[in-house]
Specification:
Distance between the termini: 48 Å
Number of helices: 21
């Protein structure tokens, strides 16, 4: 609290307009804000909007963030080509706030509709290209970098890895030209690019990108950004089989996350911890997390979240030797995923079920499971590589040579081919 009142001279200079902006911020604003709870809350809201906007001017952050939803209606709901034309021609859309809102929507859509997320990110790129002299050219380039990075991320989730790489090249060019030194933007771009490198199985490069991103988020004192990147690093560690380090990192992440402010992210980190403990064979520890997870999910979970938790519970039950309970849970989760047309998830659960059946020598049931799975996938449009993996699975079952190791290899191939939804982007169960 700023208990010291401004001096008589300072107040006099302020009243006659002789106090410059920096002096007002330093000598008067803190005192007034501390004395008035309403103004203090408004200041906190301005800070929130500034962080959301990513613009240096509080005025731009407040005004344009509030105006953007209404302005976005000018784009309409027609074909993408028509919306792109409007983004070019309607000057009211050429604002910082509109571009940032499009990036937010693309980030949300990437979990539920990657194709739509690509279109929305394209619109953000187009709007960012029309921002004029009202904005600093370096800051505009930073925003363009963000737009290209989100376009690259949406393309990645859609499976267009080459197009994603091209978008990240454009993002890097924009950052190089901007010369603002905005390391927070760089951290975001590097984090998204790290996800691409992970999908491309370029694991060492992915690790370096996320570690650099993590250092920058910490430099900017962004605890939430840092926690999200830590979870990316966990994915990389899991991909290379270093489960013990991944577990240590997940425990450290939980310590820096505030469940009251980041409940979903906290719950997500605990879910990954339970899954990673299971993969490391530490099922007793994983089981001890389940009551906490059920409590957390009771506050934030949607139906798919519960299914993935049930999937994790089935794996833990199998690891603890409760095979009947695991089998029952696998079949229930498989059925629910198929009902929701989550074919890749259903296939991955089926592979877990196959491993359980193989361990028990139930070859005839394995053959039936393989046939059921092929019927489902033949009726749907899936990647050629995914179908090849399933054909390998079917053949191994038919020839009674399916092993747990082969199941893991086929599951890894399917995991690389799957599209992403909200939690599936990083965690299948």
């Amino acid at each position: 609290m700023h208990d010291d009142h401004p001096s008589l001279e300072t107040l006099a200079r302020w009243l006659v307009g002789d106090l410059d902006h920096e002096e007002v911020l330093k000598k008067l604003a803190p005192h007034f804000l501390d004395r008035c709870p309403t103004c203090r809350k408004m200041r906190e809201e301005i800070d929130r909007l500034s962080k959301k906007s990513g613009h240096w001017s509080e005025l731009v952050a407040v005004v344009e963030t509030q105006e953007a939803p209404e302005l976005l209606r000018y784009l309409g709901d027609g074909p993408h080509e028509e919306r792109m034309r409007r983004a070019d021609e309607i000057e009211e859309l050429h604002t910082w706030g509109v571009c940032v809102l499009l990036l937010e929507r693309s980030r949300d859509e990437v979990f539920s509709d990657p194709a739509r997320a690509v279109e929305t990110a394209h619109l953000a790129v187009r709007v960012a290209g029309h921002l004029g002299e009202a904005y600093h050219s370096g800051w505009v380039l930073d925003l363009q970098a963000r737009a290209f990075a989100h376009l690259g991320n949406a393309r990645r989730v859609l499976g267009e890895l080459k197009g994603a790489g091209d978008a990240f090249l454009r993002a890097a060019e924009c950052l190089e030209q901007s010369r603002t030194g905005n390391t927070h933007i760089e951290a975001e771009v590097l984090s998204l690019k790290g996800s691409l490198r992970l999908d491309q199985r370029r694991l060492e490069e992915a690790r370096k990108l996320v570690e650099r991103s993590l250092a920058l988020y910490r430099e900017n004192e962004d605890a939430t950004g840092a926690a999200k990147v830590l979870l990316q690093k966990v994915k990389i560690l899991r991909a290379i089989g270093d489960f013990d380090q991944a577990i240590d990192l997940l425990r450290a992440t939980a310590e820096v996350l505030d469940p009251e402010k980041e409940l979903r992210l906290y719950a997500y980190s605990r879910q990954i911890l339970a899954s990673t403990l299971n993969r490391a064979g530490r099922n007793e520890e994983a089981e001890r997390l389940l009551p906490e997870l059920r409590n957390l999910y009771g506050k934030i979970a949607e139906p798919l979240d519960w299914l993935r938790l049930q999937w994790t519970e089935a794996r833990i039950a199998q690891g603890l030797g409760r095979l009947d309970a695991a089998e029952k849970a696998y079949r229930e989760v498989q059925s629910q995923f198929l009902e929701r047309k989550k074919s890749y998830d259903a296939a991955l659960v089926s592979l877990d079920l196959a491993a359980l059946l193989a361990e028990q020598g139930r070859t005839e049931e394995l053959k039936g499971l393989a046939m059921e799975l092929m019927v489902v996938f033949e009726s749907r449009e899936v990647h050629r590589e995914a179908m090849a993996a399933l054909l390998l699975f079917q053949q191994a079952c038919a020839e009674e040579r399916l092993t747990v190791e082969l199941v893991r290899q086929i599951a890894a191939q399917l995991q690389r081919e799957r599209s992403s939804d909200r939690f599936a982007a990083t965690e299948e169960g």
